[in-house]
Protein 1
Amino acid sequence: MRRFITLCSLVVVFSFSRAYGSGFALYEASVRIAGMMGAYVANGNNASTIFYNPAGLAQLSGINVSFGSTFIAPRTTFRGPLPYSVSKSFLDKQTFFVPNFYATYQIRDGLTAGIGLYAPYGLGTRWPSNWVGRGEAINTEIQTLYLNPALAYRLPIDGINIMVGAGVTMVVTSQVKLSRAVTELVPEGTFSLKGDQNDMATGYNVGIMIQPNKMVSIGFTYRSKVKVEYSGIAQFNNLPASAFPAGIKGRTKINMPANLAVGVNVKPIKNLNVEADYVWYEWSSFKTLEINFDQQTALLTDLKIPRDYKNSSQVRVGGEYNNAFVNNLTLRAGISYDNSPIPNYTLDPTLPDNNRWSFSGGVSYKITNMLSVDAFYMFIRAKERTVMDNFDGFNGYYNTYANLYGIGFTINI
Amino acid sequence: MKKYLLHLLIISFALVTYSCKDYNSHPLEAVSTGSANFSKYVAVGNSLTAGYESGALYQEAQKYSYPNLIARQLHIKDFEQPLVASPGIGQRLEISNFQTFSITANTQTGNPLNENLSRPYDNLGIPGAVLVDYSNDNDQGQLKERATNQNRADFNPFYQLVMRTELQKPAPNINDLVTALNPTFVTFWLGNNDALNYVLDGGAGRSFLPPTTFQALYQRAAQLLAATNANVAFMNIPNVTDIPFVFQTNAQLMQEGKIKLNAQNQYQLVTPQGDLNIYIKTEDTTRVMMKNDFLLLTAQEYLTQALANNMPPVTPQTAIPSQYVLDGPAGGQPGSSELEKALTTIAQYNAAISGVVQSNPDKFMLININGFFNNIITSYLNKGYGYLDASQDTLNPVIGSLFSLDGVHPTNKGYALVANEIIKDINSKYNAKIPEIDVRQIPLGLPWKQ
């Protein structure tokens, strides 16, 4: 078993984390929890509580390991550009692999430490290189991988169970990519920039969980903003060297926004728990995407792309039913509604997001007392987005949906 | 509990299925053209109508010809143009170095891409076309010879590209092509070359078409057009001083500090030996260059050579030849300067055009492109910008912004502004609601040397 775990954590380190979210947030940080739509801030019975609410760690005993992978397959079409065309363009079909890994160790009763590796932010969109919006975007990616050591403690108070937890969020690897066609020239060329994180960026997460009785649990968690700075060498394809000299270095920074979540979990009957969460993201920290170059030329000057995201919220409801129909089988389901943080005028093909409904279902089966296998499926459907006043005049209809599925393992020793 | 879960599953499934419903249908909203009928739109004109840019006609630029842009806004699907593969016909000017802004001519020629179309093109813009080409009664303008005799100095290959089999007739003319298309709406922009050729040669080569002849030919064209079922938008002639070919060189040399204007309104060359008067040749004399004398774009290369050969134009012997200068009034006979002649002639042309439009207000309308370019230049000279797009980015009437590398023809963005001007006037005359073009979405389209 030990060897198996080592192998899996290697996979985690060498894989990319990139995907699709409300804004570019990802809440699918665990296969188990995604099955109940991430409604988990007041639950915390699994090692992945490091992501959802570090306070939950304090109730975990022994050694717990949980890891898995989520596959995200977003699909988007664009119809436009308005007002003269409604021709349909399709986002390239890509499937993103988002890994996660958590391990906890109980130091003593009521004091547990843990470490998590997950990708809370990421996005990837790739349009055909000859599509009608190539001057706006061809390829756009943000990848992050967070390492999150955390510690939680149960306060020694009789009659009420209060747990507090905190952790350090370290962005161990992160990358941004963007490419677009330079349509101002005949013939056209392509500009692309791949930026790697300069120095490891850090933040923190904290949480509290209050259980006044055995039926009800209340949770709250906060994750701080992390500012990540990137740099890389710009690549030019079929562009004049006198305007796009080789070796130009580009720099940018992105605020991974702060977020908080609050929720209530109820166990109305044996084996069943249901939870409702409210999740909030401080997306207003993403005002402008600035790309600065170390040389300016006649055609290459610093880019200031307006973003002006608004703070956004999500409502998540989910539940899990243990020993359902047969022993050792757990079923999960959930539903959520997300508000898109992106205003109409900065909505563009880099991230064709909108308010969305999501539906999920999940299953775990306990193979042995120590090992469970987990799986989930989720369907996300964004409302059709009609953009008529884009900041660059690129208008049309966007339709987006995504299929997500994942498989993972949970080990309790 | 099992039942409850089952219900939950069914409800979830129903929700998923519901949310999977097919895309909302969004047919293109019909464009309201008011009392105008655009079921068959035909454009008549010269290089400006063809979508000529940077000294050549090629498909990347033709895509942004103002007639094609207007057709796009009107959702006309079969608007056909005589497309030519890059680098086109002409000698396309291309930027070879963006740091020094060096420009070279591409001597290669592209092939026609749409020559087998079995009907006349909807864009009948012919680079080099003159007013007489529209009617060409009895081949009075020798269009047939200019189109087919390659030995003539004024041979023009674009007639063959656009008119094709029409040239087999004894008196080929554009009107035949227009009537064959049975248009419901025509934009008509001829006459520029009848004045411009004089200016491009610095007054030292081709001459103006006399304004009385211009008027007669314009009336004849209007008479032929009135006989069709079409409404016609006539576009008048911009002032020659409103193109960078004429006004940009002085402005640029001043900006670069290479020349300056003294208290007597004389231009002076800045040299290590001090500021020296610049001499120019005019039609009848050699004199000092004054404020209203314009060095043409072609003078830039001449000056570079002259300075390299240590022959600066600071003596009467080394004066800048007449073909590189559009000379303005300098105290001689009033109205005798090239500039005054050009402006007066164009004013007379435009008066003739206005007269024709007023003669048939039901079918004819005027698009005042002269006033439009004037406004842009005036704004540029007074406020520092020519045009502000919806993002408040500035577009200026200079090469590399609204004008292409030849200094005469607009860029894609420049043509989009022309299209918008036409759309605005049509909307107001015919109570139509044709959407204007968002200029931000129109690429400049500057050619560069690979």
Note: The interface with chain B takes residues 77, 79, 81, 83-86, 135, 183-187, 238, 240, 242-243, 269, 272, 297-299, 321, 324-325, 331, 333, 335, 357, 359, 361, 379, 381, 384, 391-394, 397, 399, 401 of chain A (CB under 8 Å).
Protein 2
Amino acid sequence: MAHKWAMVVDLDRCTGCEACVVACHAENNIPTAGEDQASRGRAKHWIRVESYWEGEYPDARLRYQPVMCQQCDEAPCEPVCPVYATYHTDEGLNAQVYNRCVGTRFCANACPYTVRFFNFYNPVWEKPLNLQLNPDVSVRSVGIMEKCTFCVQRIRAAEIQAEGEKRDLKDGEFNPACVQSCASKALVFGDVHDPNSEVSRLARSNRSTKLLGELGTLPNVSYLQRGV
Amino acid sequence: MFHSSKQYWIAVALATCLVLAGVCTFLYQVYTGIGIWGLNSPVFWAFDITNFVFWIGISHAGTLISAILRLANATWRRPVTRCAEAITVFAVTIGAIIPVCHIGRPWLAYYLIPYPSERHIWPNFRSPLAWDFFAIITYLTGSTSFLLLPMIPDWAAVRDCSTGLRKKIYGTLSLGWQGTPRQWHRLETAMHIMSIVIVPVAVSVHTIVSWDFAMTPVPMWHSTIFGPYFVVGAIFSGIAGLILAMALLRKFLHLEDYLRPIHFQNLGKLLLTMSLLWFYFTFAERLTTWYGNDPSEMAVFWSSIRQNFAPMFWTMVVCNFIIPVPILAIKKLRTITGTCIASVGIVIGMWIERFLIIVPALEHKFLPYTYGHYQPTWAEMTLMASSFGLMFLLYLLFAKFVPVISVWEMKAGLHHPSATPHASTVTEVPIRSGFDDNPLPSDV
């Protein structure tokens, strides 16, 4: 049976350290937008840690919520692309074909989570950052959309490795960069078609909810609500 | 027809400058990226798509009105139809250029065309943008034929009274027209078929434009009212654009004897109807949203009514309803000047309406953390000015090289006020256009 990749975010465990954001930038060749562009609303983070204040001073609490592409089964971004640059893979991923994208930005408008990013300019890496590019990931040019892929390059590498060794993938054998770097283990990744995987177990928890689940997008990311 | 004043060439030069400014901006944008615009995350569409919807809206003046008036046999339409149809063709052309300029990689725009490719990739027919592509191409083809068909006898008339190269060009354009009864019959039949066909095409075009918004789960976009709301808005702004174009033609080409106060009065009545309809739709849409009280929609609702977009919103209501309705409803005020004042307001108000549909909704999507703010830049302003420049340029050239009043239809009206012409000998009467000093007698 084909895999179906999914993620669980435990909101009780997230400390808002943003290690996942840094790891994602390094893994996926995401350039930093810079002060000027970021102030114009063009910061580009495939995963971001949203912060919300709860309560009034002095009983205020800061809550964190990491948000990345939810890899929706009924993704609103997919049907609107006029050139099939975004589509659903057999393994439940919402894929972006950079070569095919003409940059209508329709998908970004349709996405309720605002996790699709547009390349307003060609990417630039100041020296020596240009030496740390990940050779497994395409660098995206001006005029196209990009988004979280669940580190599809790692998924493919692990699948090919397992296929070569004629064995099944083990749960937790590999992880996307954000999950790998999460010190408090707030992020868990795996195959929900495997009922014994940790991600399946956690997704069945009664704390499990979907972000904006009422929109019917059927996300493959589950959020475990805070206990307190 | 072929002698033009100094002012004419100054106007052409100014319009050409605007167009060139737009071309340069576009080339610079291709070289650097759409970053020179004010777009950001989450406002991925703003001025670009506002202008696109605006021009497609303006295009609904011509063909639709002219087709309906033809089908209703409204004889007063005769001098109006051609300048209306020309607006349509030019506005759709501009409307079709804008999406190509607005995409991130304009040099790959041909991916939207279903051409046979060895990779077997077709456009995505589920996408409203793909529907848009087909709708606009169909409308452009249809409205161009609708404009060109009844021009054939007039071109033949120009051919018969000119010499040299001019005779050759107009001879080619008139497609061997001789004015035989058979040819007249065919032309009438073709025009009748086109009038019927073009109405559903025009309605579908703006409905599909509205679906670019309504088919997405964005607060205040995802609405069943958008199809008819957009069609009404399009016809509304289209008639206003037509009245302004007619007033300009009347003034500068001295067509006072053809475009008479009665035409402005009748179009003014149509405009009044559309203004009331527009208000009804806007009111129904807002009231439904307010009662529904969905938090994500209310964020958009209040941002446009009370917060940062409130000045624009209330300007829109004043321009589209409060100013035009009294002017157009009171017979004494429904003069040429009156309808022009109302039309200027409506053109501005309807541009704002499209902006307010697009931008506040994108600024306030579901997650408050992602709320954004949009500010246009010089590049978007230049491109917008350039689209107006292109409209003026095309219209100026059109008024110079084509009889802006359908000569044969006017003459058909002379002899048979309500019937269709049969074998009228067009070539006997010399052709005139507004650039001449002596207009035709005024008893038309």
Note: Confidence is low (pLDDT under 50) at residues 417-444 of chain B.
